[in-house]
Design goal:
Layout: E1 4-8, H1 15-28, E2 35-39, H2 45-52, E3 57-61, H3 78-84, E4 88-91, H4 94-100, H5 104-116, E5 120-125, H6 129-133, H7 137-148, E6 156-159, H8 173-191, E7 200-203, H9 208-215, E8 222-225, H10 232-240
Parallel strand pairs: 1-2, 1-8, 2-3, 3-4, 4-5, 5-6, 6-7, 7-8
Helix pairs in contact: 1-2, 1-10, 5-7, 7-8, 9-10
The structure holds 1,3-dihydroxyacetonephosphate.
Length: about 240
């Protein structure tokens, strides 16, 4: 399966630097065989969309509201993202679950809204350090998948252990393999045969230096990259070791 390398820029980059970063990534993308997605902050989406037009790099947002429209001050609806040129959206990132109390039920509703707007949802799951230490990682992640993934889901799941995000720490390759196998099993349980073909990304301190090993783990369908996606060279070096098909 062709791997997907996605960059989550989080709350970084004004429009000018965002367009420049997107331009550098798009310029090199023709030689890369994997799928590429970048997710800038909302305010840079239009500028980056203009840069990516006609390139192989897809544009995504980092969150959306579950409603199609309505009185939700400050929120952004999925059709607005499609309208600005997005083809994907991250939902349920651990920073949203942690800092804004998003529940898996809310994440599922957002994934439904994304699909209704023809956006590919990147549904994030992952255990905290305390949950891992208590031996509950697989159980927690399985429950997040079962509750966050809607019926008929055609998007992507990203496994991001909370303790590996922005810390420089990663799980062992055996742990990544075990968690991805558990997520695959949960997806099959949730979606039947359709759950067998969905991509499961790994995220959490992915860098050029560890990408080849992480992307070679069975059932790893790509990477969701935070900090290292803010540097075009580093991001492209990660993409260069991803599988083409
Ligand atoms: P880092 O790659 O900075 O650890 O962030 C991972 C992440 O949260 C991507 O969504």
């Amino acid at each position: 399966m062709r791997q997907l390398v996605a960059g989550n820029w989080k709350m970084h980059k004004l429009r000018g630097p965002a367009a420049a970063l997107a331009r550098a990534i798009a310029a090199d993308s023709p030689v890369l065989g994997c799928d590429l997605l970048i997710c800038p902050p909302f305010t840079a989406l239009a500028a980056v969309a203009a840069v990516l037009r006609g390139s192989r790099v897809a544009l995504g947002a980092q969150d959306c509201h579950a409603a199609e429209s309505g009185a939700f001050t400050g929120d952004i609806a999925a059709p607005m993202l499609a309208d600005i040129g997005c083809s994907a959206v991250i939902v349920g990132h651990s920073e949203r679950r942690q800092y804004y109390g998003e529940t898996s039920a809310q994440v599922r509703a957002k994934a439904v809204a994304a699909a209704a707007a023809a956006l590919m949802a990147v549904v994030c799951v992952g255990e905290s350090e305390a949950e891992r230490d208590a031996g509950r990682a697989a159980e927690v992640v399985r429950a997040q998948v079962m509750e966050s993934v809607p019926d008929g889901f055609e998007g992507v799941v990203a496994y991001e252990p909370v303790w590996a995000i922005g810390t420089g720490r990663t799980p062992t390759l055996d742990d990544v393999a075990a968690m991805h196998a558990a997520i695959r099993q949960a997806l099959r349980h949730r979606l039947g045969l359709d759950g067998a073909g969905l991509r499961i990304l790994y995220g959490g301190s992915v860098k050029a230096q560890n990408a080849a090993a992480l992307l070679a783990v069975p059932e790893v369908g790509g990477a969701l990259v935070g900090g290292a996606s803010l540097d075009s060279g580093e991001f492209l070096r990660i993409a260069a070791v991803a599988r083409r098909g």
